[in-house]
């Protein structure tokens, strides 16, 4: 760590010198322009950016299918605004994988194609992306998926189960967008200014978005099990519906705490959610014991459903922990 003494010039202007090593490494010299970003009691300084769009290139010669789609997602989440995918010859299957990946991502579109290159560009800027709106939407979709997955199971509704599985893409799309914005905030102070949130708050929202994405994954898992199960006994169905109700309440209460501006209210809601998680663990074991008395194959599948609902509750508890940290006094 280096220190500098603040001086006064012209009677009213405060000045401080820059470390020479840092200035040299970042191409700063006499006449260069730097940018300042206030963040509570800190002041962040960066060289002024010369390019508005960050461009990256990836060789996709050895990539196909899911691996290629994952590569596109990684480039997007990492913060590239323009993604050049290059190879000696782009195959039809590669083009399909690239387009499918783009459809899973908010704002990403194919803007150019040749025989050797596919160019993707993010058409939204950071000021248009709201983490708060994203996690609010994730909350609604994930909870509706969880509820509908149990409804599909209890009512033996395969169409509803299939619909739940399809909705998982909506949650993933919002999760990737949240991750992109969060990484941008960490990397570039100007992004934090555009988003309008501090880096700590962005971290709290990003962490909670991950928990909601996992809730949606377990809703999908339950829906897939519902496709394999026929009608289930009423006693088991009642236990699962009660477990669902409790899990949903934990997640709702935790999210209320996370988005609450008043610290006292946030702490009260978060602690209430944490206490309920412990009660749900006990009730989950009770429901699990009920389903174990059924036909072995049915018992095994329903046991997985119980486990997924219990895990969804735990993810709500994790959001409550994050809400407590967000509401805590700052050191």
Write a structural description:
This protein is α+β, with helices and mostly antiparallel strands and 331 residues long. It has three domains: 41 residues; 68 residues, Translation Initiation Factor IF3 (2-Layer Sandwich); 201 residues, Methane Monooxygenase Hydroxylase, Chain G, domain 1 (Up-down Bundle). Helix content is 63%, strand content 12%. The chain is built from ten helices and eight strands. The chain has a four-stranded mixed β-sheet, with helices on one face. Strand 7 and strand 8 form a beta hairpin. Helix 7 packs antiparallel against helix 10 and helix 9 packs antiparallel against helix 10. It is flat.
Identify the CATH homologous superfamily of the largest domain.
Phosphate transport system protein phou homolog 2, domain 2
**Beta-strand proportion:** 5-15%
- How much helical structure, as a percent, in the residues? 55-70%
Distance linking N and C termini: 21 Å
Number of helices: 10
Oligomer state equals single chain
Which value, in Å, is the CA radius of gyration? Answer: 25 Å
Main sheet summary: 4 strands, mixed
Order of helices and strands: EEHEEEHEHEEHHHHHHH
Rounded average pLDDT: 88
**Structural class by helix and strand composition:** alpha+beta
CATH-derived architecture of the largest domain: Up-down Bundle
Q: Order of strands across the widest beta sheet? A: 5-6-8-7
CATH topology of the largest domain: Methane Monooxygenase Hydroxylase, Chain G, domain 1
Instruction: Characterize the overall form.
Output: flat
Tally of domains: 3
Number of distinct beta strands: 8
Contiguous low-pLDDT stretches (5 residues minimum) are none
Q: What is the CATH C-level name of the largest domain? A: Mainly Alpha
Organism: Halomarina salina
Pfam families: MazE_antitoxin (PF04014), PhoU (PF01895)
Domain SpoVT-AbrB: 8-53
Protein name: PhoU domain-containing protein
């Amino acid at each position: 760590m280096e220190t500098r003494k603040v001086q006064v010039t012209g009677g009213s202007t405060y000045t401080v010198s820059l470390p020479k090593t840092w200035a040299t490494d970042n191409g700063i010299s006499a006449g260069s322009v730097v940018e300042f970003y206030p963040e509570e009691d800190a002041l962040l300084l960066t060289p002024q950016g010369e390019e508005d769009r960050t461009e990256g290139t990836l060789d996709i010669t050895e990539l196909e299918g899911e691996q290629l789609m994952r590569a596109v997602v990684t480039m997007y989440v990492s913060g590239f605004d323009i993604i050049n995918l290059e190879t000696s010859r782009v195959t039809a299957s590669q083009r399909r994988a690239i387009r499918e990946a783009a459809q899973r991502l908010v704002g990403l579109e194919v803007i150019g194609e040749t025989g050797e290159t596919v160019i993707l560009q993010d058409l939204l800027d950071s000021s248009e992306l709201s983490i708060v709106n994203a996690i609010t939407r994730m909350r609604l979709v994930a909870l509706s998926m969880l509820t509908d997955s149990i409804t599909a199971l209890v009512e033996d509704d395969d169409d509803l189960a299939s619909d739940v599985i399809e909705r998982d893409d909506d949650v993933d799309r919002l999760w990737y967008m949240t991750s992109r914005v969060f990484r941008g905030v960490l990397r570039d102070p100007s992004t934090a200014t555009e988003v309008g949130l501090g880096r700590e708050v962005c971290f709290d929202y990003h962490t909670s978005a991950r928990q909601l994405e996992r809730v949606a994954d377990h809703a999908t898992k339950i829906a897939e099990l519902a496709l394999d199960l026929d009608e289930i006994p009423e006693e088991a169905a009642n236990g699962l519906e009660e477990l669902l109700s409790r899990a949903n309440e934990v997640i709702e209460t935790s999210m209320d705490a996370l988005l609450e501006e008043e610290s006292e209210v946030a702490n009260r809601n978060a602690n209430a959610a944490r206490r309920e998680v412990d009660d749900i663990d006990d009730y989950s074991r009770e429901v699990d014991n009920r389903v174990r008395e059924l036909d072995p194959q049915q018992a095994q599948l329903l046991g997985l459903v119980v486990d997924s609902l219990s895990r969804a509750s735990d993810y709500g508890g994790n959001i409550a922990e994050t809400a407590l940290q967000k509401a805590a006094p700052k050191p």
